[in-house]
Fold these 3 entries.
Entry 1:
Amino acid sequence: MIRITARKSVEYPWEACIEPAAAAALALDEEAGRLIETPHGVAVARPSTRAANAWALAQATRDPFVIMISIYIFAPFYVTRVIGDPVLGQTLVASANKWGGWFVMLSAPLLGAMIDRLGPRKPWLAGVVTMMVLLTAALWFTPVGGGGLPPGAVLVILAAMTALFAYHEMLHNALLLPAAGMEGAGRASGLALAGGNAVSVLMLVGVLFAFALPGKVDWSWLPAVPMLGLNAALGEPDRIPALIVAVVMGLGAIPLFRLVPDMARTVLSVPQALRAGAGDLARLVREARGHRNPLVFLLARMIYTDGLTAILVFGGLYAAGRMQWATLEMLGYGIILSLAAVVGGLLAGWLDDRIGPKLALKLELSVLMVMQTMTLGMAHDRILFRPWAGTPFWDGPMFTTLPEVVFLSIGCVLAVCVCAAYASSRTMLTRVAPPEKMGVFFGLYVLSGSATMWLGPLLIEAATRAGGTQAWGMAPVVGMLAVGLVVLMFVKGGGRLEAGG
């Protein structure tokens, strides 16, 4: 779907975008204050604050899937306790993400363009949400010791969720202008991103105190055993987030379907819409020709974004395997890094203003390369490639050894810089793309984000198989960041606005 980015956070690809077609369809007659018709159709109702809030809530209750399932809780649990081999598990999860990424690359752009031409988004989104809820809930049936879903089925679910998440983002983003209008788009987008982080942190804290800490620490105000009678031996405290995320995701989508206006149905049939959508994509590419500088930036961004996404997606698996962390430690790790990511978003804005987005990106990517290299030398018994045989320095419930504290510190810096790099990337494009073609290049910006989302998982899968360790598997991430940084060097502009960048 051809979209213009309005606001953005760290990606899984975590972008809030709006599309030129929808923008045109929602153009406001300033004198009459009403929606006017365009060739692509009209919205069936005017934007409103209630609709904008409902749109934001749908994203706020969708994004916890990434935090709770993909990064910090379910995937690390499944790899370490159900599969029982972190190296094999990292390989299998990488393969699932690779196949999901390939499917998105082949289907999402044309599907989005076709739906643009058909008109209504909500029926398609309802189908996507239904499948996401059912597949997420199905992950509950993965007990330790077998007897649940076979590994092949779980990997199919993870691959399908990679594609469905991308489709959800595409369709949900296309409803931003119908929900909030031009004036309210920024507020709604920011509210959705902040809400996603807030709901994720609340879920992490809730699982920590209701299911992970009980029975592990003797605090009078905590339950003595996990709530709801969950059995830790079967991994139920690790699996319950799947049900929580599924329920919250489903309930959070209901206000969107009730309150957010949809686009009216056009007269085109599906084959006609498919042909017209293909023409829209071809025209988008043609209009970008002759603008070498922004295209070089999009190439750089496409490469290093694969590295950023790999850090997010595989960081939890890596931490669980190398540091031998269980649910308790992973919950604490997720809460702390989620808070660090907020700092990254604020830091990016400050750096973009002070030194310009290009220099900010160079700094952020350089720090990420150093930090990611350092993580390759970390393990529960290693610090920066050197063996460690010390003893715990306190008797707390988590993070009791020096390797754990060092790894946690590195993780915080990674979270800050990943978030900052995503934000600075958006700002950078606004500085190097021609103003009269900003919509074209933000459309390509979104398409490039999905074009190679399979590359990081493919390289990690191959490197993990070849090297036989998780550290070898994550080594290509440093290479993707480095190549992206080198290509960025050839981009002109991107300095401070005051300096004419």
Entry 2:
Amino acid sequence: MDMWLIQLNKTSQTPLYAQLYEEMKEAIIKGDLLVGTKLPSKRKLAEFLSISQTTIELAYAQLVAEGFISSVSRRGFFVEEVAELAYVEQPREIADEMESVKPNYSIDFHSGKIDTSAFPFNQWRKYAKDVLDESSRDLLLLGHPQGDLELRQEIASYLYSSRGVRCAPQQIILGSGTEQLMPLLIRLLGKQSVYAIENPGYPLTHHIFVNHDRSVIPIPVDSDGMNVNELEKTDASVAYVTPSHQFPTGAILSASRRVQLLNWASAKEGRYIIEDDYDSEFRYIGKPIPSLQGIDQSERVIYISTFSKSLMPSLRMAYLVLPMHILQEYRKTFPYYSSTVPRLDQHVLAQFMNAGHFSKHLNRMRKIYRKKLEKLTSSLAGYAPLVQISGEQAGMHIVLTIDLEKTDKELVELALDQGIRVYARSEYMVTSNDQSSKPQILLGFGGFLETEIEKAVQLLMNAWGISST
């Protein structure tokens, strides 16, 4: 290649040095510039191409850095030998459509949304500022693999006082969400374990079991929670349940079934119950439902919960409470694991809890969500009997049973046509044989302002063609 044939487009948006670099790199790879060829000096090439020496210097520097040419003091620049498969940048096809970041609906009844307007930013900021200080430089290093003791102590104390969970801090494992902790637990329980799951139930957990090649048996749920009689007919060895507020039906595992389930677990070696207590903080009718773990006498209950509902989903912090004998196995199986929760976040939360702000926040949020629930139920009351409500005892969603000749998926589509997102009960069924005779829809209310609820309900009913009575 004759260096003097280089053509630069001075009107292009690509910088001149980048154009020169690309042409020379391609010429070297193709062999048009032979190994050992001396390149023109920066001054001569700049004069010929009518560009600055700085442009030539930038192009040459990039070629030297990547090994295409070498610089020899007082002699100049020379072409180096490169491998046959040297990287040549090819034009890449750009996707026609960019990923959409805005949803195609204006109203979202998602059950996982929280009230962000009520978050205690001032208190959280105070403890974050305290933690982000030079005196806390040790927090930049790795901490305890199960999570720092300060936070595990606060969690243990909170669980005992609010949920009746009996545990020591060393039994707690912190992780960045249920989806990070569950695979660890699945490995601990072994490949031979067969998992019984609620049907309908939480879809993420079902996917985790399937993705880890674990056998899954769906067990039907009724108004008293998981049907333990059906569980006893299977060869399941682990039962995954949401007893305090079954997702998505809102059912509470009855007292008799709690005893029956615990007896099932203790009747045979290797049986366990995974108790997912995902939103038990928010109960609006009667006394708090005690945890299964708190009444377990045989150490067969593995307790799991998260701060997603009680604080914020983006905190990405969940925790396991392992029975002591499983804890020993955990430490043998994962001796080199580090906690996946940033230590700075752990200590902000620990101080926040220690000062009593977490309890105050929960008390405040219970009142806020109770008012929202009351507003939602009163707004829906005028649409009875076509619309019936269930699952309103706790949590941040309710279930609507709609007396229309439509499927729940058809109702979802009708709502979406009007820019409203709702969720069909059938989406949470593990098997397709849903025995529900009428369509059921989940409505989450946590993310709405109280003043927005009545209008949102009205728009939803209009989309379904249901008039107020």
Entry 3:
Amino acid sequence: MIDFYLNGQRQQCADVSPDTSALELLRLFLGKTGTKEGCASGDCGACTVAIGEPNGQGGLVYHNANACIMPAHQLHGRHLVTVEGLARGDALHPVQAAMVDCHGSQCGFCTPGIIMSLFTLHEGQRHRPAPLTQERLESALGGNLCRCTGYRPIRDAALRMGDYPDTHPLWADDPDLPGNVESLFTDAMRPSQPASETATGYAMPRDLASLRELRRQRPDSSLVAGGTDLWLEVTQQLKPLEDVVDVHQVAELNTIEETADGWWVGAAVTYRRLEPLFAEHYPAFAHLMHRFASSQIRNRATMGGNVANASPIGDTPPVLLALGARLALDGPEGQRELPIESFFLDYKKTALQEGEFIRAIFLPRLEERQLKVWKLSKRREDDISAVLAAFSWRLDDGVMRDVHLAFGGMAAIPRRAPQAEAALEGQPPVPAAFEAARAALRQEFQPLDDVRGSSEYRLVAAANLLERLRLMLHKETRHDNNTAEVCLDAYAH
């Protein structure tokens, strides 16, 4: 049973198959066809909806999400808002009115998704007013594509929506709605029933003990957290998922624990929750988030899922390799830790044993080390990497130490470049050392040709990123009386 609220009205949907998406539930079961299917992969944003959850202060907070790759069962205990739920009778919501007046819609297919992304932005502005900067606007709309308007009218509408009367939906007048949603949400977070009683093929454990038992009983089940990658097997490969274990509500997988040496990040923690940590302690990682994915994806995707997916072009693993991260693995046979560089074995093959899962990821503090991350892709936002490079090092008396050079898109797995690292270790950041490191890259990697770039392009691009690092270090190093004064910046840009 999926028990949730839709545009202020309670819905209870029974006998929903494990691989049903929120989009399918809306269009095929509930007759809400305003939400569209475009790419069916979370790229175009036509299916964008707003998900409301309790904010802990008696209200609801909304975030945008791609309905096409969101498991329908994850609507349980939430308030789902679609484009049909915004107008107040004949009176349009400010977002809708602004889009009409600014001619922000032409063919109209993508418009509902754009409206919903702007709705979540508008809600945020209402409750936490802040200047609507270009960066905030790009972040809000980065996951919504439109082939007709050229985007300027949409941007104009976004900038003007705050000037309209606050015509809010009728459901927003219901004083009981936040409490009703919170009651469902709280019930959904209670410890789950014994694993053996789940008969629908979709299990949603709430604690680590239940997850371990499910993995013991069903070691071949598909694990899902945000669904931003797994659900592509359904939408793109038409592969049925008949046995799904949803980990997004497991309490122990949703914690961020600070230690003296760094942070243990639960595998189900979303990137949205990680943004403040990255901004304060890993500026280069925070900068990558603007290129990593859309707001719809960051609201739901998890670092644990990105690592477990083991894609050679995943954006997170190279950064974790450069940082020297560790993984805490768990399962029916107990717990263990291993360095992340020992996790990736071959294409889509990892060190996970039968029934195991990633419980947490340890991010070491940078301390005196520096971190730089560069991503090359055809689109600036919401695109898959052709090459991603993550470099970590420290400067000690003018020479490079603890050099970690990690790449994605250069091999069957994300991996470091030990020969290139050795060429730089203990050397000053001078042209000769970097020339040797660039030469070593050609010996270490034999990238594949694909639609995102040829093998030669990737080799040249990776070498150029190393040269970019050298030029940065040269710029940050000042010589005064033959003594190097090294500026230890955070290299956030």
